[in-house]
Design a protein that fits this description.
Number of helices: 13
Transmembrane segments: 6-27, 73-93, 105-127, 148-166, 178-197, 239-256, 262-281, 302-321
Order of helices and strands: HHHHHHHHHHEEHHH
Family: Belongs to the complex I subunit 1 family.
Organism: Lophophysema eversa
Number of domains: 2
InterPro entries: NADH_UbQ_OxRdtase_su1/FPO, NADH_UbQ_OxRdtase_su1_CS
Number of strands: 2
Largest sheet: 2 strands, antiparallel
Keywords: Membrane, Mitochondrion, NAD, Transmembrane, Transmembrane helix, Ubiquinone
Length: 339
């Protein structure tokens, strides 16, 4: 049951996410400016600190335009659905030891079940406007998300087989001694690549190829509708970074200490990696994108399903979990994999 405390927690969580998105956009523009030998936002207030607020005011004061031959119900509802799904998933993210609105035993399954619904919001967003650019962009985004979700699912399957739990807090407790990043660095690398592609970020932002599709499935959205889509996109990106940190970098844990400040520092590190990727790599062709998943990542991922238990059993890293039943479980799994 949802009580008054849960409602207050949800409101505070939404405020926290909105402020984080404003900060992320400012950091992103500043780093992009630095990489291109320019200053970036530096006019509004102190060195451009209030630039995200100025951008939000500008967007919200624009006219809401409804294009011809548009499905008005879907045109208005799909941005709301996209943002709602993105925010809903954040309710089970453990920001520190004592704060998560819901602690589910099937936390990872819940996250990926809700995130799979994002495909429908993107597809309906492109279809509702009766525009070829928007629809092609939505089809590209949908195909890209579905294909890379396969690789992500196999990666999660490997980590769950090692951790032996779907609970996010259990995953954090297991990493008090050693982060999963260390024994599973190849898996972490593939997870980062798959997440960049699944969220349509550079160099995989083919859904918004300006020379081909203008702005992709976002085209013709203005005012509050575009603002909601923008917030949904960056909320999803922030969620992906949080999942990466929880699964591979110990979340808010460092040396048995759990605080939200540690979580924030790790989030910032992942932000820098994502933005650095955007500033340095060019956009791939669509055939290269599909080749990467079907001919490179997926076969390698299937091989690592067999190799990962072997690595954990024969290296000293496995001693970090000597007080758990993981090693016995892995021995059984290793036999089944080899069989």
């Amino acid at each position: 049951m949802i009580n008054a405390i849960n409602i207050i927690q949800i409101i505070l969580l939404i405020i926290f996410i909105m402020l984080r998105i404003a900060l992320i956009t400012l950091i992103e523009r500043k780093l992009l400016g630095t990489s291109q030998a320019r200053k970036g936002p530096n006019i509004v207030n102190l060195s451009g600190i209030l630039q995200p607020i100025a951008d939000a005011i500008k967007l919200l004061t624009k006219e809401i335009i409804l294009p011809n031959n548009t499905n008005p119900v879907l045109f208005i509802l799909t941005p709301i659905i996209a943002l709602t799904l993105a925010l809903f998933t954040w309710t089970i993210i453990p920001l520190n030891k004592n704060y998560s609105i819901r602690d589910l035993n099937i936390g990872i399954v819940f996250i990926f079940a809700i995130r799979s619904l994002r495909v429908y919001s993107v597809l309906l967003t492109g279809w509702s406007r009766n525009s070829k650019y928007a629809f092609i962009g939505a089809i590209r985004a949908t195909a890209q998300m579905i294909r890379y979700e396969i690789a992500i699912g196999l990666i999660i399957l490997t980590t769950i087989a090692i951790i032996n739990s779907f609970n996010l807090n259990k995953i954090l407790e297991l990493q008090e001694k050693i982060w999963l990043l260390i024994p599973l660095f190849p898996v972490f690398t593939m997870f980062m690549i798959s997440r960049l592609a699944e969220t349509n970020r550079t160099p995989f932002d083919l859904t918004e190829g300006e020379s081909e599709l203008v702005a992709g499935f976002n085209v013709e959205y203005t005012s509050i509708n575009f603002t909601l889509l923008f917030l949904a996109e960056y909320t999803n990106i922030s969620l992906i970074r949080a999942i990466i940190i929880i699964i591979f970098l110990g979340g808010s844990v460092i040396f048995t200490t759990r605080t939200s400040s540690i979580f924030a520092i790790k989030i910032r590190l992942i932000i820098y990696i994502f933005i650095w990727t955007r500033t340095t790599l060019p956009r791939m062709r669509y055939d290269q994108l599909m080749y990467l998943i079907w001919k490179r990542l997926l076969p390698l991922r299937l091989r690592l399903i067999v190799i990962t238990p072997v690595i954990l059993l024969i290296t000293p890293i496995s001693q970090g979990w000597k007080n758990t039943s993981i090693l016995n479980i892995e021995k059984c799994r290793l036999k089944s994999y080899l069989w």
